[in-house]
Design a protein that fits this description.
about 110 residues, two-stranded antiparallel ribbon, 4 strands
């Protein structure tokens, strides 16, 4: 993909992530599909790991893997920050995984398309 497409994807990912409601979470794959690029789940993960949520106010902590695992937590450092942010929104985490994942999961295709 050329630079223009990567920037387009990045902006689409940010736009979708900003729509995730407090107390809900979604997956890299769901965001990729909603952005119109279903095969770029790993790119979504990379974009989330580089977005600097504290500076940009992009709620990257609400994006996890397809099973509800906090697979992106290393982007928040070793402090457990991703878990703390989710728990502050009422999401229960057990063994680094969102409890009641199917209930917490926010599908952007159902919500914004």
């Amino acid at each position: 993909m050329d630079k223009i497409n990567k920037e387009h994807i990045k902006q689409a990912v940010y736009d979708i992530v900003c729509l995730i409601p407090r107390g809900r979470a979604t997956s890299y794959g769901a965001i990729a599909k909603a952005a119109g690029f279903p095969n770029v789940s790993r790119m979504v993960g990379k974009i989330m790991s580089q977005c600097d949520s504290a500076a940009t106010c992009i709620p990257a902590h609400r994006v996890v893997n397809s099973q509800g695992l906090l697979s992106g937590s290393q982007a928040f450092g070793n402090s457990g920050e991703m878990q703390k942010l989710l728990e502050s929104e009422g999401v229960t985490i057990v063994n680094n995984k969102i409890k009641n994942w199917k209930r917490v999961f926010w599908n952007p295709l159902d919500e914004i398309c």
